[in-house]
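Protocol step 4 of 6.
Sequence for TetR/AcrR family transcriptional regulator (Ornithinibacillus salinisoli) entered exactly as in the expression construct, tag removed. Do not edit the line below.
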Amino acid sequence: MSKKQLIMDKALELFAEQGFEATSVQQITDYCGISKGAFYLAFKSKDELIIALIDHFMEAITSDIDHVVKTKNNEELLFSFYYTIFNSFQQHSDFGKVLMKEQAHTFNEDFIIKIRYYNTLIEQMILSMLERLYGKEIEQTKYDLMYCVKSFMSTYSELFLFNGDPLEIKLDLLSQSLVEKTDILAKHAKNSFITSELLHDIRQPLNEEITQDQIIELLKQKIDEMDECIEKDSLILLKQHLMNPTFSPAIVKGLLENIRQHSHCKRISYLLRNYLKLKIRG
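Step 5 output, structure tokens:
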């Protein structure tokens, strides 16, 4: 594990127990068993560390959603979407709890910008999923429906996060229940409040354009950070393929699948998948 990953993992434990504001850099370094100098080589400040944790948490969720939306067939798409959301919250429950508690009184501009960015990204994924599932049937209500889905995610995630183990065994039931509710709204709701114009006014524009050179640079950074493992080998091969395409689509899909589940490869997996425009089935 790299020093940066160690700091993030240990800091998250302290943030979950004490909150962002109550946790000092000194406490983090003591808990990690490192010097302050080592901390500041990895992060310029505690705020930068918090932003890195937000990225890590939200990249994992958005990457998983993106994978489901792009790969599942229509019959299983909505169920897989909800199941993936709540499973991600289960896997990252510590930071989910911290994030929900801290958002209400955190006014750091970088923090707000990050949250709005990921919020918009998730909205676009949900909208793409709904349009694919229901088509013209929801032309007048799709934006309202998208906000209903977001509300389901938020409300039930909060219930899920703060009620512990008893809910863990009910992911199937919860997901199926929300599929039913979403389907009813999509097929029977007639009145719409949110229009495309209103959404345009309140949304944060996304700049998702990324060049091949930028992806290669991100790959180099990630390769340097990781210990020897199959995911690191897959990253090396993917970087080679970007620089000199020689692998078949099947091999590239396999390499992407190798890195998709690694907690520190979510963003690069998402970027590569969209850049290469490959749909991984299964």
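Step 6, annotate. Residues 46-71 form the longest helix (26 residues).
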